[in-house]
Task: inverse folding
C-alpha cells in the first residue's frame, strides 16, 4: 500500500489533505516542519510527499536531499504569489504543484496516478532496452548520439508534471516527441490533444482553446468544448506556440497557473487538469524580443526545454528512418521493395532541409515511382539541388540590422530563389507554410511582387 507524507505548518491543510489521501487507500502521516518530516522519513520512506514550500524552519525543497528522487513523487504546495518558486521546484525534481487554496479534486487526480508510477518506470526501462536493440523509443526512431540524448531527457521528464518546451526546425518530429512524452507519463490512459496554433484563425482561437456556449456569437448554434476541456486529465500539445495571439497568451498563462478557465459566453469557471507540452521552430528568446511570445509565458513553458536535432546532424539515422518508412509501405501494400546501396548513398549525401518530414515524403514518392523490387533514387530527383549556391544567392546583412529586418530579408530572398513557390521556401526556411504566409502579410507591399509570381499562391495551396 503506498505511503504518503504531508508537510505543512497549517493544521487545517494537513487534516484536509490527509482525509482525501486516506480515502483513496494510502497510508498517511503528517508533519508541521522540516524536523518532524525528516523523523517521519526515517521511520518509513514515503512513495509521495505533499510539502509546503514555506515552512517554519526552511523550505520544502530542502527535503529533496532526504528523498530518492527516482522513487518518490514530490508535490509542492504554494500560494499564488509564489508560483514561480513552484516552477523552480519542478526544475529541481518535483513532479507537480498545488496552489492554495488547495483544489481537493486535483489532489485526488494526483493520488490516483501514484500507484502506476512503478509500472511506468519499468516501462521506461524496457523502452531503453528496446532503443539499444532497435533504435526505437516509443513513437520515435533513431539511434544517433543526438537522439539518444533526446530519449534520455524524455525518459526523465515524462513521469513528472513539468511543462515541456520542444524547440527544433520544422519537420524534426516535435509532435512525435510530444506524443512520446505523453505515452511515458502517468497520463497516458487519458487524451493526447494536438493543436497547431498557427493554423487556427485568430478570430476563432479563443473559442477553440476554451470552448463556447450556444449563442455566444454569430454562428454559435451549439455548445462547444475547447481543447483544454477535451484534454482534461491528459496532455495538451500546442505546436507553433509563437503564432498564438498575444492577448490569448495572457489567458493561457492564467489557466496554467490556476487550473481554471471559462468558455466564451459564460462567467462559469471550469476546472481542468492538463499537462502542457509546447513547441516552436523559432528561437523562443528571439520570439520574446520580437514580441511574439510573452516573457512570463515563456518562463512558465520553459520548465523543461528539449531541443530536437535536425536530420543533417543525425548521421546514419537517415538510412534507419528511410528503411523504417519503406518497411511501413511494404507492410501496408504487401510488397518487398528495397533500397540498393547507391540509393542509400544518395540519401546520406543530401542535406534534408525539410528534415524527417521531407524524408518521409520523399520515400513515399520513390516507392510510388519504383518498379517491382528496387527503388532508384536517381529516377526521383530530390527537390532542392545539392550544388553550391551560385553567385547572387547569398544575402548580406549589414551590422546593426534589426533581427526583424534580417528575418524579412532572408524570407524574401529565399522566396525569390524558389521562384515564388512558397511550399519550397517554407521547407528551406524550416517554418510552416502558414507561418510563411503570416510573415508575408506582415511585410505587406514588399512581398506582393513575390506572391504574384507564385503558381501555388491560391488558397488551396495554404489549405493543403
Result:
Amino acid at each position: 500500500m503506498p505511503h504518503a507524507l504531508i508537510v505543512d505548518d497549517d493544521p487545517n491543510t494537513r487534516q484536509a489533505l490527509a482525509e482525501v489521501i486516506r480515502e483513496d487507500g494510502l497510508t498517511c502521516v503528517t508533519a508541521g516542519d522540516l524536523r518532524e518530516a525528516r523523523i517521519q522519513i526515517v521511520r518509513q520512506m514515503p512513495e509521495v510527499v505533499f510539502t509546503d514550500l514555506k515552512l517554519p524552519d526552511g523550505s520544502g525543497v530542502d527535503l529533496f536531499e532526504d528523498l530518492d528522487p527516482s522513487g518518490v513523487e514530490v508535490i509542492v504546495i504554494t500560494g499564488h504569489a509564489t508560483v514561480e518558486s513552484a516552477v523552480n521546484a519542478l526544475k529541481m525534481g518535483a513532479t507537480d504543484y498545488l496552489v492554495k487554496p488547495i483544489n481537493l479534486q486535483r489532489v485526488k487526480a494526483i493520488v490516483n496516478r501514484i500507484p502506476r508510477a512503478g509500472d511506468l518506470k519499468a516501462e521506461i526501462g524496457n523502452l531503453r532496452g528496446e532503443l539499444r536493440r532497435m533504435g526505437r523509443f516509443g513513437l520515435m526512431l533513431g539511434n544517433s548520439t543526438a537522439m539518444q540524448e533526446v530519449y534520455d531527457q524524455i525518459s526523465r521528464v515524462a513521469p513528472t508534471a513539468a511543462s515541456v518546451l520542444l524547440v527544433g526546425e520544422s519537420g524534426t518530429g516535435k509532435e512525435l516527441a510530444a506524443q512520446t512524452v505523453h505515452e511515458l507519463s502517468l497520463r497516458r490512459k487519458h487524451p493526447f490533444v494536438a493543436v497547431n496554433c498557427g493554423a487556427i484563425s485568430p478570430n476563432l482561437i479563443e473559442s477553440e482553446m476554451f470552448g463556447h456556449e450556444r449563442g455566444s456569437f454569430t454562428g454559435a448554434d451549439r455548445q462547444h468544448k475547447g481543447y483544454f476541456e477535451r484534454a482534461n486529465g491528459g496532455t495538451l500539445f500546442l505546436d507553433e506556440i509563437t503564432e498564438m495571439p498575444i492577448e490569448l497568451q495572457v489567458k493561457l498563462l492564467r489557466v496554467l497557473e490556476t487550473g481554471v478557465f471559462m468558455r466564451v459566453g459564460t462567467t462559469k469557471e471550469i476546472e481542468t487538469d492538463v499537462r502542457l507540452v509546447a513547441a516552436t521552430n523559432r528561437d523562443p528568446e528571439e520570439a520574446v524580443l520580437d514580441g511574439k511570445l510573452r516573457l512570463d509565458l515563456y518562463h512558465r513553458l520553459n520548465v523543461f526545454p528539449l531541443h530536437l536535432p535536425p536530420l543533417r546532424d543525425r548521421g546514419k539515422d537517415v538510412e534507419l528512418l528511410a528503411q523504417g518508412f519503406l518497411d511501413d509501405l511494404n507492410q501496408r501494400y504487401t510488397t518487398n521493395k528495397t533500397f540498393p546501396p547507391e540509393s542509400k548513398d544518395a540519401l546520406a549525401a543530401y542535406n534534408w532541409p525539410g528534415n524527417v518530414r521531407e524524408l518521409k515524403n520523399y520515400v513515399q514518392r520513390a516507392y510510388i515511382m519504383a518498379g517491382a523490387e528496387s527503388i532508384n533514387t536517381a529516377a526521383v530527383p530530390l527537390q532542392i539541388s545539392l550544388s553550391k549556391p551560385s553567385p547572387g544567392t547569398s544575402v548580406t546583412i549589414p551590422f546593426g540590422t534589426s533581427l526583424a529586418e534580417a528575418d524579412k530579408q532572408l524570407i524574401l530572398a529565399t522566396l525569390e530563389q524558389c521562384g515564388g513557390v512558397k511550399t519550397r521556401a517554407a521547407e528551406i526556411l524550416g517554418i510552416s507554410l502558414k507561418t510563411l504566409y503570416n510573415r508575408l502579410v506582415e511585410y505587406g507591399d514588399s512581398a506582393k511582387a513575390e506572391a504574384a509570381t507564385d503558381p501555388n499562391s491560391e488558397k488551396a495551396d495554404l489549405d493543403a
